[in-house]
Here is the input.
Amino acid sequence: VRSMSSTSGGAFRSTLQMKAESGQVEVVMVGCGAPNRGMGWYHAVQMIDKKCPTASLDFVIEPWFLGKGKTTPGGPEFAEWAAENPDIQFTTSLTDLPSPIQPRLALISGRTADNPHLLTESIKNGCKVIYLEKPGAPTVTELESMKAEAAAADVKVLMGYNKNVCKYVKKARDFAAGLPGSSVTFVSNNAYENTAASLGECFERNAEGMLKNMAIHELALLVSFYDVSVDNIESVTADKEFSSLQTLTGPSGTEWTDFDKIKFSITTKTGTTVSVQADRCGGTDSFAFVLDDIGAEVFRYYMPDEEDKAHVAELEAKYPTAMPYFFTQDPDYITVKERVAKTCLDGSEAEGVATIDIAVETLKVAEYLTPILQEQLK
Here is the structure.
């Protein structure tokens, strides 16, 4: 039997009933965002469609669209979507949650700046595992503090670095592993218009900067698989021909300096060379390529590949107004969520999923590289 939801804390606690079954975890989506645009919304859709069998989406915490943002763009669409999902309890605060019955997983997918206090509230309200979207926090200091807080509460924090489990990444790593002297370049593209207005809006909305935002996934790959850390970086070299650093005005009138595209190679003290290329206006493909020991390209693998393109077309037909990048990464979002849910259920290892330790080092690398690369491009 299901009860009706209520956004007044006391009533919510007393009338709410779970829908997570035995063998499932109860998922709390914290920060959903607008239908067709928010990353949290797409995570929710995958769980509603039962793509992650261990994850039962029982609660959605959305203070903006259930509060002051009701009538703002996206608000009416959110209300309509919530009404279509009466089995899910929608509310504005984690403090409204009842005590957990099944193991409870928080999936935090709001604004990066809100993550520290949302992690605190998730721990206080019975979550034993937290799935945190990248980069986790605005700064290394905040993320380290969150890591310590979770450890003290015996709560595991895993990261939504989905490229760690991507097919194209594994194929490139496996190919390079069999070719001595080779090196890998990971390429990430977005499809912003190459105009001052479009990029100025992008720079302002992603004010943490390219390396803490778009290219953070690639830095997480370097930290996870190539032994890259601030202490182990021997040298960093920007590709000046490819790269571009601009100062542009955002919608608020404030000026922002950031890379609209960047390519660089890192050599570690332990002898590994690996490269990253990111372009805000490069299209929608992500891929990796391998160079042999004389610098000739010998392998390239795209996301999506031919097999995935049919799946992308199906999703485009089902959600015609949603963000295109949801579809190319759809299988990887499912993989990460299901592995994290399994960890929450039975303590099993979430293979390939980045930990908060990886996230801390990744953010350190981003903070270390940004001024060095900016200086090289002056």
Confidence is low (pLDDT under 50) at residues 1-15.
